[in-house]
Design a protein that fits this description.
It is a multi-pass membrane protein. Belongs to the binding-protein-dependent transport system permease family. This protein has 316 residues and is an all-alpha fold. It is built from 14 helices and no strands. The longest helix is centred in the C-terminal third of the chain and has 39 residues.
Length: 316
Amino acid sequence: MARALRRIGGMLLTLVIASFIIFAAMYAAPGDPVTFLIGNPENLTPERIASVRAQYHLDEPLLAQYWHWASGVVTGDFGRSFQYHQPVSDILAARVPITLSLVAYASVLLAIGGIGLGVLAAVRRGKPIDTAIVGGTTLAASVPSFVLGIALVALFAVQLGWFPVAGAGSGGADRVWALTLPALTLAIGALAIVSRVTRQSMIEQFSSEHVEAARATGLAERFVVRDHVLRGAWGPIITMVALVIASMIAGTVAVETVFGISGVGSLLVDAINTHDFPVVQSVLLFMVIAYMVVTTVVDLLLPVLDPRINRTAVSA
């Protein structure tokens, strides 16, 4: 319990620091937000400028502006979009489910493909299939996600017509089908990391004493791999999978833009291009929170999945 409380306290402190950095970065960005809020240059009168500054607290010091914004965020008020003239919370509510669906789909593909290839490479270590898996996944990871996405669209959507060119579908099975290529684009780039960690963790377990003891009892090799090697390697594998999944939220920026998906990633790109500061701040804060939640949950669950971590912490 004490460990969980310390972890949550550290997360809250990190969140406060990150939120201030995000807000200050927008404050220091080039361009005056007032010009974007007023729009028509003919309306840039001193009275109008003063009125807008007072309305959005832009005439107050940075710390006071941050307090207004942060106190609103705590209550679910992220401000109003400069571009859409709507509450940012409403815009996020419409976009977040699409992005989370994409990340969840990509996470399933990543876990199945990355762990599966890593297990195969570890079991066949030193053989041609091991070299092919390591080389192939490394090559795939070296291709930028937007290039990979364009290639998949050109082949499977335009040439073969198997998938829609753009969009996230209307829901249900249609959404799953529409998000297949974007999810593959997200997952393929991270396959090398997960498969390499899986392979290395399992190879280290192959030489451990409990695995040698299991072999000495005459246990079949497939059961040795499943019940002893893979079980002992779960800690690093789960940690890496969680870190990759958490970072996928940021990876949706390029993927959603390529596939024309109206998610959080494409919203961030549009907001940056239009200097929509409240939206930019909220999306970046959402990405930070998502990353912190995933990593914190995994950190708290690892001792349950691998009791050796708990024993190590106690002995230390």
